[in-house]
Amino acid sequence: MDKQLRNWDSFGILRIGSSITIGSQFMPYFVKEFSSLHPYVDIRVSVEPSNLLEERLLRNEIDLAFVETPIHASSLVAVPFSDDELTIICSKDAPFKNNQVLSLEEFKQQKFLLREPGSGTREVFDQACKFAKVAVTPTWESTSNTALINATIKNLGIAIISKRLIHEALSRGDIKQLIVKELQLKRSFFIIQHKDKILATLQKNFIEICKSSHL
Fold first, then answer.
1. Is residue 88 a contact partner of residue 34, using CB atoms and an 8 Å limit?
2. Residues 185 and 85: beta-carbon distance below 8 Å
3. pLDDT > 90: what percent of the chain?
4. From CA 200, how far away is CA 62, in angstroms rounded?
């Protein structure tokens, strides 16, 4: 038996669910920061579309989920932890200038490269189109943001994606950004949990790291 008492809050399993955008952009930083403070905690991360994460929370398969849209199930609660904005991108070879303003008529005539139904990004875009009274039909649907960026670079259409994910392609000059003033593409990122779940110290600590990250 150890001669010194252990702090059992420093041990255990932390089950985290993350949407694809947050999983690629935020979660590696969060996990690294948390692990440096709690090296003996077993962190298990699942990266999936937002709608599947809600289902896993309801089945108690994960403790917390990080998503890009408000919740749908009444038995879950959500707390915003960061702001984000989607942007419209096209290839450098597309017949538009960088930051060119498109009319809704010009916009809806494009070929669309979109995230899959059920993703947070797709839900925000669909709601923006509904509010602007414009209907679009995707040419591509993908769970991969990288696939959408690469398809855009090849001038296969325009994509709607988080601004946080395009810096590299934009700095290389591979893509351009477009503006449609009628589309509201700002959003918040949320931490969600079951409303009846009592959070353990480890879970609270992970949430605090996320809220204080300023990413």
1. no
2. yes
3. 81
4. 13
Question: Residue 157 and residue 161: Cα distance in Å, rounded?
Answer: 13
- Scan for tokens 């290839």, then name that residue: 91
* Token representation of residue 44: 């298990």
Number of C-beta neighbours around residue 83 at 10 A: 9
Averaged over 41-64, what is the pLDDT? 94
Determine the Cα–Cα distance for residues 46 and 23; give it in Å rounded to an integer: 9
Closest CA to 157 of 96, 212, 204, 198: 96
Span 80-109, pLDDT tens digits: 998 999 999 999 999 999 999 999 999 999
Tell me the CA distances in angstroms from 182 to 62, 128, 133, one per residue in order: 38, 8, 9
CB proximity list for 18: less than 8 A, separation 6 or greater: 26, 27, 45, 46, 47, 48, 53, 65, 66
3-state secondary structure 121-159: HHHHHHHHHHHHCCCCCEEEEECCHHHHHHHHHCCCCEE
Residue closest to 85 by CA, chosen among 190, 165, 175: 165
What residue ranges define each of the domains in the chain, with the CATH number in brackets? 8-82+188-211 (3.40.190.10), 85-187 (3.40.190.10)
Chain segment 122-158, per-residue pLDDT in tens: 999 999 999 999 999 999 999 999 999 999 999 999 9
